[in-house]
């Protein structure tokens, strides 16, 4: 009997993995919710003490953590790889990806997403529904592009940054690490590291501060297995 696939995280990304990508033979783990809501009967665990048992049951995994949590997604994935588990990508058949595009590991690419020639999508990134990544763009690891966002040609989106729904990024722009672009924003200039920007044209709102309490608990639990 083949081993199961671990879906780490019990929110909307896990539901999409199961329902939209028809992922079967899965287990859901999320220590921060009491119940996983799905029409299908999927085994669910929410205690760190269950991790050792879960890892023995699973040979593959996908980290179902989205939004402003790219670093957490990347960190957990790399720790599971060290446990000899294999990351999977979820790439929908109704996405449009040019043959020259370089794809990393553990990606989620949703229906209607378009990725044009010579782009690079690195590990642990998410491209949501109807987002457009134009030619020669480079998306670093842990990036998420929200639905219907448009990234013009030759842009660089650095590690763990998030581009909000319907945002537009002009050509040749650099979005530096851990930045967050608000929904509907128009980016005409480079964005500094750790900045949250909003509006048209986009302006600085505040620093992007990430709560490390959850990921620190997770790291400790995985190290103890």
CATH 4th-level superfamily of the largest domain: Hexapeptide repeat proteins
Taking the sheet with the most strands, its summary is: 8 strands, mixed
List the uncertain runs: none
Shape: globular
Mean pLDDT: 95
The SSE order reads EHEEHEHEEEEEEEEEEEEEEEEEEEEH
- The number of helical runs is 4
Q: Assess the beta-strand content as a share of residues.
A: 25-35%
Could you characterize what this model shows?
The chain is an alpha/beta fold and 225 residues long. The protein contains four helices and 24 strands. It folds into two domains: 4-64, no CATH class; 90-207, Hexapeptide repeat proteins (UDP N-Acetylglucosamine Acyltransferase, domain 1). The strands form four sheets. Strands 6-9-12-15-18-21-23-24 form an eight-stranded mixed β-sheet, with no helix packed on it. A six-stranded parallel β-sheet has the order 7-10-13-16-19-22, with no helix packed on it. Strands 3-2-1-4-5 form a five-stranded parallel β-sheet, sandwiched between helices. It has helices at residues 12-19, 51-57, 70-82, 213-223; strands at residues 4-8, 26-29, 44-45, 58-63, 86-87, 90-91, 96-97, 102-103, 108-109, 114-115, 120-121, 126-127, 132-133, 138-139, 144-145, 150-151, 156-157, 162-163, 168-169, 174-175, 180-181, 186-187, 195-198, 203-207. A hairpin with a 4-residue loop joins β23 and β24 (203-207).
